[in-house]
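Dear colleagues,

As part of the handover before I leave the project, I'm documenting each prediction I ran so the next person doesn't have to rerun anything. This entry is a single chain, and its sequence is reproduced below.
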Amino acid sequence: MESSGAEISFGKSIIVPSVQELVNDSVVKIPPRYERFDQDSVGSSLLSVPVIDLQRLSAKDSMDSELQMLDSACKHWGFFQVVNHGVSNNLLEELKLEVEKFFKLPYEEKKKLWQQPDNHEGFGQLFVVSEDQKLDWSDMFYLTTLPYNLRMNHLFNNLPPNLRETLETYCTETKRVAMEMLCHMAEALKMDVKEMRELFNDGVQSMRMNYYPPCPEPDKAIGFAPHSDADALTILFQLDETQGLQIRKDGKWLPIRPLPNAFVVNIGDIMEIVSNGVYKSIEHRATVNSEKERLSIATFYSSKLDAVLGPANSLIGPHNPPIFTQVPLDKYFKEFFARKLNGKSFLDFMRVADAENM
């Protein structure tokens, strides 16, 4: 389906070289711009993130206990895996195949889909705001998928036909999963479910396909710098078995081991704001290794474009004052994409002054 309105840009990013092409040229040392010496080591914890069964959340005999597990996961982890999500294995296998083929396209073909100076969608990197900024050891392809009128047609319509068709189905399915999860979260928060639906039914959805090539000096590079997501929920599907995703838990980095065909879901900054700080977004990063590539696709789900973002009205009151200010969603996104990633620092400008020390 084609866009019916004017294309909207949420931001731009300085155009940088393809890391995949660097690797194809058989570099043995990484260029200085990719070198990072400030990385914290991974903790030795044997903890693993909670697993939430979406079917059990809807079954009468298990919904209460599963809802308690979801609530605990959102409060204490901010990350969890979702199984029995209803997205068919056939679709997921097709998605794996098409995304792998997409990143194997000749560089000349990819350049037709590269970022433009005035917009960050397409192949490239995000959040590059200066010419001397350190870069991630990864390539990505980013595009807005829903609502239809926000799509960049020159990108979406020029995708390989099989990938475009698969993404069309996948973006519908992940929206369904996101809405189910958000409504269950509203129940757990004792928030008005109708308010949650109204805020997110026509939400902005975007996707980021990630390619992390093997790195000759993995201890000096990072695949994706530490950050929290600006959205409400992120649904990550990993396309292979290579480990790399890590979350910051109790001050240490904890590796995530995705279950086969499960989704790794995390709370984003918007959900921290809507829940008035009850559910917290979590810093995460992606590491690289010297032997294997890693591929994933992250689907970001946010509130509708004309929403004013702030704590849910049904949650705040005299005994629970708002700790975040209100801001229109489009302004929020433009602020986010204009900055260099730096942990959870983006939430600071949303925080009510009196709540900074809470």
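The two ends are 46 Å apart (CA to CA). Residues 1-6 have pLDDT under 50 and may be disordered.

All the best with the project,
I.
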